[in-house]
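Tokens in:
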């Protein structure tokens, strides 16, 4: 997953970034309503972790901004406002979930995975394609009875393709999934990961659609 963490407390924001990155996800940080709107407009995110008390406005305005534009992104509110009225207001405004501070990082990660499953229209925690199975929580993959040894980014590429097996994902879409704003990306980085996956899964498992991108066979 690619996650936008909207949090103005730098210590908490760094903790979120480190903790969620440990789940194998790419995490970007912003601290204001203005930055959040700009980030949502220029980058594709799978989920947003949204604080409500931001220095230049209410986080709910970011939520309404995303929903008014039909952005296909899951939103989990993370806020010290833990009154039932605040929860109701956020959920009615379009939030997918609401977590009060202080919070447990493992629980937040589990809620993000659940939101992602609902958005993709599936109920099983595991992803399956033919005899290949991925466990997003454990970051494990196996084909038949054989465990696969995948790097973090190989896993992320395969997870992205298996989430939408009927779609063709472009190199740019995969790069967004794999790399943060501050990371240098080699010109053939995605192609290298695809090459390594084909070596482990078979040359025909991932199909190249010339001039468009990649999809599962």
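Residues out:
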């Amino acid at each position: 997953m690619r996650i936008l963490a909207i949090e103005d407390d730098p210590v908490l924001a760094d903790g979120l970034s480190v903790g969620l990155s440990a789940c194998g996800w790419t995490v970007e940080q912003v601290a204001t309503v203005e930055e959040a709107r700009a980030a949502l407009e220029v980058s594709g995110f799978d989920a947003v972790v949204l604080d409500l008390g931001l220095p230049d406005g209410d986080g709910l305005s970011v939520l309404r901004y995303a929903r008014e534009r039909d952005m296909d992104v899951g939103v989990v509110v993370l806020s010290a406002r833990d009154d039932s009225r605040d929860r109701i207001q956020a959920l009615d405004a379009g939030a997918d979930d609401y977590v009060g501070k202080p919070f447990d990082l493992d629980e937040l990660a589990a809620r993000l995975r659940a939101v992602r499953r609902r958005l993709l229209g599936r109920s099983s925690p595991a992803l399956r394609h033919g005899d290949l199975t991925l466990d997003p929580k454990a970051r494990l993959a196996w084909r038949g009875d054989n465990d696969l040894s995948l790097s973090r980014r190989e896993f992320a590429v395969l997870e992205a393709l298996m989430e939408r097996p009927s779609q063709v994902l472009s190199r740019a879409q995969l790069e967004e999934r794999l790399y943060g704003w501050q990371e240098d990306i080699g010109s053939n980085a995605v192609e290298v990961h695809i090459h390594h996956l084909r070596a482990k899964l078979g040359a025909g498992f991932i199909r190249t659609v010339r001039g468009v991108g990649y999809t599962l066979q």
